[in-house]
Amino acid sequence: VGGTACQYTAGVIAKLGLDARVTLLDAEMVGLDREGRVIELSDGSQLAYDVLLVTCGMQEQTCNTFAETDLEVAGAIISALELAADFSVGDAAAMERIVVYGNTLESYHALSVLESRGAAQKMQFIAPPSDEVHPMVRVLRECAVLAQLPLPQPTTALLKTLNSVPGDTRPIAVFEGADGLDKGSLDLLVGCQPPEVSRIVFLCLNNAGVVYDGRVVVDATFRTSDPHIYAAGTAARLSRRYGRDVHFQHYNSREVGSALGDSVAQSFHLATAGGAAYPAPGSLSLGLGASKVVGCSAPGGMTFEFAGSPLAMASPSLDPPPGGRALHTLTERGFLQVTLAANQCVHNVVYLGKLPLPVHKLSCLVGLHVAYLDNLATKFDEGRVTDLISYVSSDAMELLYHDHFAKFRNGVLGSSIEAVVGGAAPSSVLAGAQEAALEFVRAHIAELPAFTLPTTA
């Protein structure tokens, strides 16, 4: 089911090769009958289900907020995502005043897009009053200070009303809290406030009695309080009964989606045995831990990228965790920091530079012990690494970025642990790991041109 809470169009579904197996309905869920297992859609139709998966995520709500009182203003409000996809140089030339409203990574991305389309002199950066800056924005700003790069700061003001004017496409915006922004017309309002769960989706679930606690509450199998309804993604969180404050927005969405699919598939197998019991507190085993990457383009032609573990995503910072350390360099290419946790594994990687670094490479580094990075910490302390961007982009690191390396690494770790538990000598375990590494390189040597295999005499 699509609608305003869906970014997947029919064209995207077709490109993914799923159009033969997936039916996309361009409508939004507006009602839920749990007893009859039927949802009502915004186009007036109904849809029966055996299992309902709520994976609508969260969206920026500025348009919905003001369109509720004045539907005519909806045409003047877009998201940063829509701006990047549809805004042209011609649009910029035809407009006089563009307001970017919010203080998130999306707001800086919107400023960058407007700048690249020739609208730098027509945009205003305004953010509503807030007790604290979003942690990821704070990291971006700290990187900009370290890199000695200017970064726009928003004017603090609250958008009180946005009203349409008969016969005019430009609505009147009334701001409160800043001089010179009391009242005036605008051509475009780019909503960049922190995303929230759609109010309509929330009301559907809440009115149907599905447990909601800031997000849709699920158990360790992604099942809600209704055994026929599952939820995952940014709109879901783990039940507090597990003793952990887990929001799935901090986890890798691909990994979460795979885990959800496995859980639903397993539920069909268990159905013949009477169903599975609610996982008991203390028995939590989600098996999730893959890294996640977020970022944005920034004014001045810069790119910001933050790759981290779920723990790092929950509390993004340039400061290392207790017992850890941060390694960073600043060169003409940009700023890069590799943060190590107390166990010497990569906690996060932060980049701000002129050209985007391959996201998958930054993602692959997270979670690796520093030894995999050719003893980076030791080389850094010895002054042998003065450019981390070049270091992580070097040919010597290519093995770490191979598509199958993570699976290979986990397999070697598992077999090594089994060997140690079985009483094998450390020397034989090490020899076995080395031989496995050689076999991996040998099998993929065509994809690793910088590597050579030892020759036998």
How does this structure look, described?
This protein has helices at residues 10-15, 62-67, 80-86, 89-94, 105-116, 135-146, 199-207, 253-271, 310-314, 359-365, 376-381, 388-392, 405-421, 426-443, and strands at residues 29-33, 38-41, 46-48, 52-54, 77-79, 98-101, 123-127, 155-156, 158-165, 168-176, 183-185, 188-191, 216-218, 229-231, 236-238, 292-298, 302-308, 325-331, 334-340, 346-353. The chain is of the alpha/beta class and 457 residues long. Mean pLDDT is 89; it is low at 1-5 and 278-284. The strands form 6 sheets. The chain has a 5-stranded parallel beta sheet. The chain is built from 14 helices and 20 strands. The termini are far apart. β2 (38-41) and β3 form a beta hairpin. The radius of gyration is 25 Å and the shape is globular.
Largest sheet: 5 strands, parallel
Question: How many strand segments?
Answer: 20
If helices are DSSP runs of H or I spanning 4 or more residues, what is the number of helices? 14
Our estimate of the beta-strand percent is 15-25%
Based on secondary structure, the structural category is alpha/beta
Rounded Rg: 25 Å
Tags for this entry?
single chain; 457 residues; alpha/beta; 5-stranded parallel β-sheet; 5-stranded antiparallel β-sheet; 14 helices; 20 strands; 30% helix; disordered N terminus
List the helices and strands and how they pair.
Layout: H1 10-15, E1 29-33, E2 38-41, E3 46-48, E4 52-54, H2 62-67, E5 77-79, H3 80-86, H4 89-94, E6 98-101, H5 105-116, E7 123-127, H6 135-146, E8 155-156, E9 158-165, E10 168-176, E11 183-185, E12 188-191, H7 199-207, E13 216-218, E14 229-231, E15 236-238, H8 253-271, E16 292-298, E17 302-308, H9 310-314, E18 325-331, E19 334-340, E20 346-353, H10 359-365, H11 376-381, H12 388-392, H13 405-421, H14 426-443
Helix pairs in contact: 3-5, 13-14
